Amino acid sequence: ELARRMEFDARGSDLELKFVDREDRVGRGGDHSPFARRGIPAIRLTETLEHYGRQHSDQDLPEHVCFQTVAQVGGILGCTAAGLSLAGDPPPAELAPGQALSARIRIDSDSRTEVWIRPTDQVCWTEKRVGEPGEEVLLEGISPDDFFIGVSAPGGVPTVLNP
C-alpha cells in the first residue's frame, strides 16, 4: 500500500512510477528486502532500463547517473514522506453490510478521511475522495465486489476495507 500511495503522489509530475507487485527482481534483493521481510513497509525504486554491465563494478560511476531523475525521485519521496509524517492512524471505518451496487462507508472519525477506490483488476488506486468528519460516504455505482475500497488519514497509507 505504501508503493500504491507513492505512485498516486507521483501523478502529475514529470516522473512516471510503475507499480510492480513483487519484492524485487528475480533472484535478486535490495536494501529494502530485510525491512520487508520483517514486516516493515519498504519499497524499491529503480530505473526500468538497468545497465547490468555497470552495476556493482568499476564502471558504476557518478558520470553514468542521471541527476535530474535522482532529484525527481527525491521530490516524490519527500512528498510521500511529508504526508506520512503528518498523517494520523487510519480512521475507524467499515463498509455497510450487504450486497449493493453502491458502497456506503461509515467513518468514525473527528477529522477528514481519504477514501480510496480502485477496480479489482487494477494494481494502483484510481481515485481518491475526501470525507468530512462524521460523514457517511456514499460511493454511487462503486460495488465492493468490483472495487477495492480503502481509507486513510490525509497523507496516510490506505487500509483496505474489503480485501
Task: Identify the overall geometry.
Answer: elongated
Averaging pLDDT over every residue, what do you get? 88
Strand proportion, as a percent range, falls in 15-25%
Quaternary structure classification:
single chain
Description of the structure:
The chain is built from three helices and seven strands. The chain has helices spanning 2-10, 33-37, 67-86; strands spanning 93-95, 103-107, 113-119, 127-131, 136-139, 147-152, 159-160. It has a four-stranded antiparallel sheet, with no helix packed on it. It is elongated, with a radius of gyration of 19 Å. It starts with a helix and ends with a strand.
Identify the notable features of this structure and list them briefly:
21% helix, 163 residues, three-stranded antiparallel β-sheet, elongated, alpha+beta
Helix and strand topology:
Layout (H helix, E strand, L loop, with lengths): L1 H9 L22 H5 L29 H20 L6 E3 L7 E5 L5 E7 L7 E5 L4 E4 L7 E6 L6 E2 L3
Antiparallel strand pairs: 1-2, 2-5, 3-4, 3-6, 6-7
Helix pairs in contact: 1-3
Outline:
This protein is an alpha+beta fold and 163 residues long. The chain has helices at 2-10, 33-37, 67-86; strands at 93-95, 103-107, 113-119, 127-131, 136-139, 147-152, 159-160.
